[in-house]
Design a protein that fits this description.
This is Copper resistance protein CopC. Keywords: Signal. By secondary structure, this protein is an alpha+beta fold. It has one domain (about 30-125): Immunoglobulin-like (Sandwich). About 15% of the residues lie in helices and about 45% in strands. It has one helix spanning about 1-20; strands at about 35, 40-45, 50-55, 60, 70-75, 80-85, 90-95, 105-110, 115-125. Strands 1, 2, 3, 4, 5, 6, 7, 8 and 9 form a 9-stranded antiparallel beta sheet that branches. It is elongated, with a radius of gyration of 19 Å.
Length: about 120
């Protein structure tokens, strides 16, 4: 009986490890820094000199129509903030040019059209 319980526990443990990795961040699709928050994947990219934040929901581009947000970038002792507004499709774009130098930390707060607010943190490499 003890062997049966041990085998059952081992099978359960091996099966459960797949569930733990189900919501890991996928590789960058747009060439930026990737993080997950609230079951969504966010990718922060420097696009044409301005930060852009792409949002995906389980391999599906999440519409950001009606969303708004704020991006704060900390680089050394410099703190820069800018508003994020919907671009086309699944991207929020910064209103102002904000550099994203290596070593900087960034925090994006996004409020979607349904009222859900998500905060995501990035370390720029």
């Amino acid at each position: 009986m003890k062997k049966l319980v041990a085998i059952g526990w081992a099978v359960f443990t091996l099966g459960a490890t797949g569930l733990v990795h189900a919501h890991d961040a996928k590789p960058a699709q747009y060439g930026g820094a990737v993080q997950t928050a609230s079951d969504l994947q966010f990718e922060l990219v420097n696009k044409d000199g301005k930060p852009a934040l792409y949002v995906d929901d389980h391999d599906t581009k999440k519409s950001v129509g009606g969303a708004k947000g704020k991006l704060t970038v900390l680089s050394g002792t410099t703190k820069t903030e800018t508003a994020l507004t919907p671009g086309s499709g699944n991207v929020l774009v910064a209103n102002d040019p904000v550099p994203l130098p290596p070593g900087a930390k960034a925090v994006a707060t996004v409020t979607f059209a349904d009222g859900k607010t998500v905060t995501v943190r990035f370390a720029i490499k």
